[in-house]
Specification:
The complex is a heterodimer of chains A (458) and B (578).
Chain A: E1 4-5, E2 8-12, E3 15-19, E4 28-33, E5 39-48, E6 51-56, E7 68-75, E8 77-80, E9 87-90, E10 106-109, E11 120-121, E12 126-128, H1 132-135, E13 140-141, E14 148-150, H2 156-166, E15 168-169, E16 176-185, H3 187-199, E17 206-212, H4 223-237, E18 241-247, H5 249-262, H6 276-284, E19 288-290, E20 296-304, H7 313-321, E21 324-327, H8 330-334, E22 347-348, H9 351-354, H10 364-388, H11 395-412, H12 422-433, H13 446-452
Helix pairs in contact in A: 10-11, 10-12, 11-12
Chain B: E1 6-13, E2 16-20, E3 28-32, E4 37-45, E5 48-53, E6 65-72, E7 74-77, E8 85-86, H1 93-100, E9 119-123, E10 130-131, E11 136-142, E12 145-150, E13 157-162, E14 165-167, E15 172-176, E16 181-183, E17 186-189, E18 198-200, H2 211-216, E19 224-228, H3 235-245, E20 250-256, H4 260-269, E21 286-291, H5 297-316, E22 320-326, H6 328-341, H7 355-364, E23 367-370, E24 376-385, H8 395-401, E25 406-407, H9 412-416, E26 429-430, H10 433-443, H11 448-472, H12 479-496, H13 510-532, H14 537-541, H15 544-551, H16 558-575
Parallel strand pairs in B: 8-21, 19-24, 19-25, 20-21, 20-22, 22-24
Antiparallel strand pairs in B: 1-2, 1-6, 2-5, 3-4, 3-6, 4-5, 7-17, 9-11, 9-14, 10-13, 11-12, 13-15, 15-16, 18-23, 23-24, 25-26
Classes of the chains: A alpha/beta (458), B alpha+beta (578).
Bound molecules: adenosine-5'-triphosphate, adenosine-5'-diphosphate (ADP) and magnesium ion (2 copies).
Chain lengths: 458, 578
């Protein structure tokens, strides 16, 4: 029988302090009975013989000093089962749809243990998203964690949805699933995702966790952990290829900051806790592949950069952990270009392992390097034209200037439902590059030019 | 009463545990809780010991037992370190995987060195020899080199017996008159520097095969370098390039709080790559310490010490060791995390006040030395720094720059242009350049220094001219200055840019670096002459030799191409009347 304590001595923000308990474990799950008969859950953050600090997930509203506190004797676990596919759950894992309760096949710790680096397998299978600016320039591979850095009002959700709809590994029909974790997004946004999942039939293969804007902020700290625990079960126990979409990480980090402030911790930058890097890493690193296991976890976290500032701690720390980033560009969005991917600021660190002969095409690396170089040169010239006018440019420079426009207008821009194969993407790239003097294609070696350049290709 | 060295937990707050009833010394290793999690005493307050625990403390509660091992955190040193991959406290990851499965769980110990494996030992001393601490007593083939078995630094005496044969690291291979048993394995506390006879001037370059580094900002064997850069600017790729190509005997790669997949990549690629010195598998000269970002922070804090201690051990054999620490910022953050749990008074950005001294103590452990045994060995350290917000004015970058002698500044602007390695040639520096010039002159080319200077000056001029161009456009410049811009561009695009992923371009021997830059200078001279003869710059720039010069670096037969290009340039320029 678990003992109930009525020794709350302080309540501050999301934290409850309890005195005179028997020894309580660090990380132990807590249940708090409120005077109105409802219960809230929490977790132990600090434990000593004198005092136990509990972080309450559903917020401390309504808790008083007389509330009963029970320590449940175990750390936070969640039930998982194959039947979760197709289900919509709350941010703390309770069914929101009218479906039956989930009969657990297993109960798993939601703080996943680290994958032993020695057990990891290299992510190297090319995922074709059908989006040229990603496939061609910032290629995604299975087991990668690639966030979208966006800003308010930018169509990051559409990008994520297009990826979720179109992503495939060529020549394979394998078990895949989508795990969607929403943290503090509006119900309208959530609806947008759900509608699309329903429309495309993806919902049947999805597990959805919803913590919405009006749900308790601290619950957001649980949501991605539940989502990833589910993903690990689907991937490594059931052998599925799981795409995890988490949105919006910025709300998660705000909740983290709130806990830090309530504990009066010394903050690092801009009030965020010093351990935010480690905390985020514990989440993002739950992507990957494992040797001798069939499944994989590919992560697509979405975060909005406060004030479009990429040096803000949230995108900054994320970028230091994830394997690249897709940056949404307000400038392209204003020009009406969808998807507004700022290729020059985007990066896929695992691209090298997933492209080239046997993966995509032998010319992929060289073509992408050349596109980057030519686009950068064209963009520089835009700056110059603003000063000296287009007439002052040499003919060569004018070609580069035009190239930058057609690159944005034809390569980056595509329809929300346009699913380009990698061959189409690369052929389009060659077509655009062929408007430049052949001599200026310095990143591509002769053999490839002979084989693929429209002027020499048979 | 609790017995001596046995106590109990009174508080658990994340990785920091407080215990009573053990009376340890600072830095003693203790076993915490029913699971016997490994931890280290980092603070003593009255009768309470504050412990940082190397494993996750979830589920641990006050009242559980704590016992003191009475020993500081040590690493095991001996044959078997090479080709190994360890966590931050030297637990072999393959062994952990065998015992625990694919995820790292808790409470498992595993010795750093294999206890079963037999090594072929051949003594190099004999009965009756008088030995001093650190002297070599025998040899064992290990990985790509000869492992020198040394007497531990503090032991001395006369050899009573010693024998050749196959031994495990623990078996006695002999004995001293004092009764001290000789073994291949020794232990050393990680937070204490291993002794050497004397420090020497680092006057030999660590050749890396990376053009911008070797030519413009060279590192010396035994030197220190920092690579700061925002995310995605190339810290890891540069560190990995150095661990692949640098002409060190031994490479210690510490993945400190970084990505799991990066360690996997090293693990899959290194066994297939060749050690440029010996032609054997690269793994045979490498030890990996992998304490990724999601592994416990206290073990992350320890990982750089584990790494540098292994480095010192091979240095003591007389080898040149290079150690890459990716990233020292994550190490500093681990310190910060622990310090804040201790409720210590924070310094700048929440880092502990002792950040600067920890950094300098660490970098102080490298250098070129005369070892206790006599020969020369070195440790070069390359520390990646991950400044928050990419801003170099933050405390870790600033404190590091006060110590290191080489600064390779990675630049997000260059990265956006895919100029790799994104090392900013205007702000980077190497304080070793003047010391190393002598070596380059003797071993590469008499006019190495002059050529380097020419390149640096051209780049400097470019940046000054760029300021004008930004205002009025390039057309306003005289042809001669526009030529300078073009030559600088060639230096940047042909010479400084070097793709880590291109099979040929990835590594460039010194001689080739010299010839390449020299060819660009030759082009520059001929072009200058042409311009002075009123040939239009347009004509000069569209010569085939200029295009060819750029593509040369990707060619299998680059050295042949470099020989031919001089003639080609002369022919083409003479066609313009030069
Ligand atoms: N020394 C430098 N350090 C860092 N970044 C530099 C440096 N020089 C140039 N850059 C970056 O590269 C950008 C482009 O430089 P620059 O204009 O010289 O190259 P380019 O456009 O390729 O050459 P060109 O002017 O001949 O077209 C600069 O705007 C700047 O961002
Ligand atoms: N020398 C190089 N050659 C080619 N690409 C490079 C080079 N250096 C860096 N890169 C590119 O930049 C990306 C990020 O580099 P990385 O070393 O992982 O950055 P950091 O460690 O600074 O975050 C790599 O994935 C690669 O695409
Ligand atoms: Mg320019
Ligand atoms: Mg890195």
């Amino acid at each position: 029988m678990t003992k109930e304590y009525h020794t709350i001595c302080q309540i501050a923000g999301p934290l409850v302090f309890v005195e005179k308990t028997e020894p309580v474990a660090y990380g132990e799950l807590v249940s708090i009975a409120l005077p109105d008969g409802s219960t809230k859950r929490g977790q132990v953050l600090d434990t000593s013989e004198e005092l136990v600090v509990v972080q309450v997930f559903e917020g401390t509203g309504g808790i008083d000093n007389a509330s009963g506190v029970k320590f449940l004797g175990e750390t936070l676990k969640m039930p998982v089962s194959k039947d979760m596919l197709g289900r919509i759950l709350s941010g703390s894992g309770d069914p929101l749809d009218k479906g039956p309760p989930i009969i657990p096949e297993k109960r798993l710790e939601i703080i996943g243990a680290a994958i032993n680096p020695y057990a990891r397998d290299n992510p190297r299978e090319f995922i074709q998203t059908g989006i040229s600016s990603i496939d061609g320039m910032n290629t995604l591979v299975r087991g990668q964690k690639l966030p979208i850095f966006s800003g308010s009002g930018l169509p990051h959700n559409d990008i994520a949805l297009q990826i979720a709809r179109q992503a495939k590994v060529l020549g394979e029909k394998e078990d895949f699933a989508v795990v969607f974790g929403a943290m503090g997004i509006t119900s309208e946004e959530a609806q947008y995702f759900m509608k699309d999942f329903e429309r495309t039939g993806a919902l049947k293969r999805a597990v959805v966790f919803l913590n919405l804007a009006d749900d308790p902020a601290i619950e957001r700290l649980l949501t991605p952990k539940l989502a990833l625990t589910t993903a690990e079960y689907l991937a490594f126990d059931l052998g599925m290829h799981v795409l995890v979409i988490l949105t919006d990480l910025t709300n998660y980090c705000e909740a983290l900051r709130q806990i830090g402030a309530a504990r009066e911790e010394v903050p690092a930058r801009r009030g965020y806790p010093g351990y935010m890097y480690t905390d985020l890493a514990n989440m993002y690193e739950r992507a990957g592949r494992i040797k001798n296991k069939r499944g994989s976890i590919t992560q697509f976290p979405i975060l909005s950069m406060p004030g479009d500032d990429i040096t803000h701690p949230i995108p900054d720390l994320t970028g230091y952990i994830t394997e690249g980033q897709i940056v949404a560009s307000r400038e392209l969005h204003r020009k009406g270009i969808f998807p507004p991917v700022a290729v020059e600021r985007s990066l896929s660190r695992l691209m090298g392992q997933g492209i080239g002969e046997g993966h995509t095409r032998e010319d992929h690396r060289a073509v992408s390097d050349q596109l980057y170089a030519a686009y950068a040169e064209g963009r520089d010239l835009r700056g110059l034209v603003a000063i000296v006018g287009k007439e002052a440019l040499s003919e060569r420079d004018r070609k580069f200037l035009d190239f930058a426009d057609s690159f944005e207008g034809r390569f980056v821009r595509q329809d929300m439902n346009e699913d380009r194969t990698i061959d189409q993407t690369l052929d389009l790239a060659w077509e655009l590059l062929s408007t430049l003097p052949i001599d200026s294609l310095t990143k591509i070696d002769r053999k490839l030019i002979e084989k693929y350049h429209p002027s020499t290709k048979k | 009463m609790v017995e001596q060295g046995k106590g109990k937990i009174v508080r658990v707050a994340g990785p920091v545990v407080t215990a009573e009833g053990i009376s340890p010394r600072m830095y003693d290793v203790v076993l915490v809780g029913d699971l016997s999690l490994m931890g280290e005493v980092i603070k003593l307050v009255g009768d309470r010991s504050i412990i940082q625990v190397y494993e996750d403390t979830s589920g641990i509660r006050p009242g559980e037992p704590v016992s003191n091992t009475g020993e500081p955190l040590q690493v095991e040193l001996g044959p078997g370190l090479l080709s190994s991959i360890y966590d931050g406290v030297q637990r072999p990851l393959p062994v952990l995987m065998e015992k625990q499965g694919d995820f790292v769980s808790r409470g498992v110990t595993a010795p750093g060195l294999d206890r079963e494996k037999k090594w072929k030992f051949k003594p190099t001393v004999k009965q009756g020899d008088e030995l001093q601490g650190g002297m070599v007593i025998g040899e064992v083939p290990e990985g790509n080199l000869v492992h020198k078995v040394m007497l531990p630094p503090k032991v001395r005496g006369k050899v009573k017996s010693i024998s050749a044969g196959e031994f495990t690291v623990e078996e006695a291979i002999g004995e001293l008159d004092s009764g001290h048993k000789l073994r291949m394995m020794q232990k050393w506390p990680v937070r204490t520097a291993r002794p050497y006879a004397e420090k020497l001037l680092p006057d030999i370059p660590l050749v890396t095969g990376q053009r911008v580094l070797d030519t413009l900002f060279p590192l010396a064997k035994g030197g220190t370098a920092a690579i700061p850069g925002g995310f995605g600017t190339g810290k890891t790729v540069t560190s990995q390039q150095l661990s692949k190509w640098s002409d060190a005997h031994i490479v210690i790669y510490v993945g400190c709080g970084e990505r799991g997949n990066e360690m996997t990549e090293v693990l899959t690629s290194f066994p297939e790559l060749e050690d440029p010195r010996t032609g054997k598998p690269l793994m045979g000269r490498t030890t990996l310490i992998a304490n990724t970002s999601n592994m416990p922070v206290a073990a992350r804090e320890a990982s750089v010490y584990t790494g540098i201690t292994v480095a010192e051990y091979y240095r003591d054999m007389g080898y040149d060791v290079s150690l890459m620490a990716d990233s020292t910022s994550r190490w500093a953050e681990a310190m910060r995390e622990i310090s804040s749990r201790l409720e210590e008074m924070p310094g700048e950005e929440g880092y502990p006040a002792y950040l600067a001294s920890r950094l300098s103590e660490f970098y102080e452990r490298c250098g070129r030395v005369k070892t206790l045994a006599g020969p020369t060995g070195s440790i070069s350290v390359i520390g990646a720094v991950s400044p928050s917000g990419g801003d170099f004015s933050e405390p870790v970058t600033q404190n590091t720059l006060r110590i290191v002698k080489v600064f390779w500044a990675l630049d997000s602007k260059l990265r956006e242009r895919r100029h790799f390695p994104a090392i900013n040639w205007l702000t980077s520096y190497s304080l070793y350049s003047p010391i190393l010039e002598e070596w380059y002159r003797k071993n590469v080319a008499e006019d190495w220094g002059a050529l380097r200077l020419w390149a640096m000056e051209t780049l400097q001029q470019e940046s000054e001219l760029q300021e004008i161009v930004q205002l009025v456009g390039a057309d306003a410049l005289p042809e001669e200055q526009r030529l300078t811009l073009d030559v600088a561009r060639m230096i940047r695009e042909f010479f400084l840019q070097q793709s880590a992923y291109h099979p040929v371009d990835t590594y460039s021997p010194l001689k080739r670096q010299y010839e390449y830059m020299n060819a660009i200078r030759k082009y520059s001279e001929l072009a200058k002459k042409a311009v002075s003869l009123e040939v239009s710059l347009e004509k000069v720039q569209t010569l085939k030799c200029r295009v060819d010069l750029g593509k040369l670096k990707f060619e299998e037969e680059m050295d042949k191409g470099l020989k031919a290009i001089a003639g080609q340039m002369e022919t083409e320029f003479s066609g313009l009347g030069v």
